[in-house]
Automatic annotation (TrEMBL):
<dbReference type="InterPro" id="IPR029060">
    <property type="entry name" value="PIN-like_dom_sf"/>
</dbReference>
<feature type="domain" description="PIN">
    <location>
        <begin position="5"/>
        <end position="109"/>
    </location>
</feature>
<dbReference type="InterPro" id="IPR052919">
    <property type="entry name" value="TA_system_RNase"/>
</dbReference>
<protein>
    <submittedName>
        <fullName>Twitching motility protein PilT</fullName>
    </submittedName>
</protein>
<dbReference type="Pfam" id="PF01850">
    <property type="entry name" value="PIN"/>
</dbReference>
<dbReference type="InterPro" id="IPR002716">
    <property type="entry name" value="PIN_dom"/>
</dbReference>
<dbReference type="InterPro" id="IPR041705">
    <property type="entry name" value="PIN_Sll0205"/>
</dbReference>
Amino acid sequence: MQDDNHSLSTKAREILEDSSCNLYLSISSFWEITIKQSLGKLKLEYTLDELSGSCSANNIFILPVQISALNILKTLPFLHRDPFDRIIISTALDMGFNLISKDTKFHNYEVNIVW
């Protein structure tokens, strides 16, 4: 299931391949994938069920959206307009997680970015 994505940074790839790291993926990422697929903007070679199964098989935990993250979200400045990215940022802030992303707009927030 893992795409051999050559656009990943060396640091991001190291973290993703390190079995001692706890990895998390927001359910909002699945929501965004679903919307983009329904609009015809994203084609994948696998289903959401297969993606979820791959996450489980690779010890990637799928995080629900927590009320505590929504409380952070409502006070988050609108420096990034994408609603899915904003919930990912607020979740990382809420949980104290590092966030793997090459999105430069994420640096506008006080979240630890790895890339």
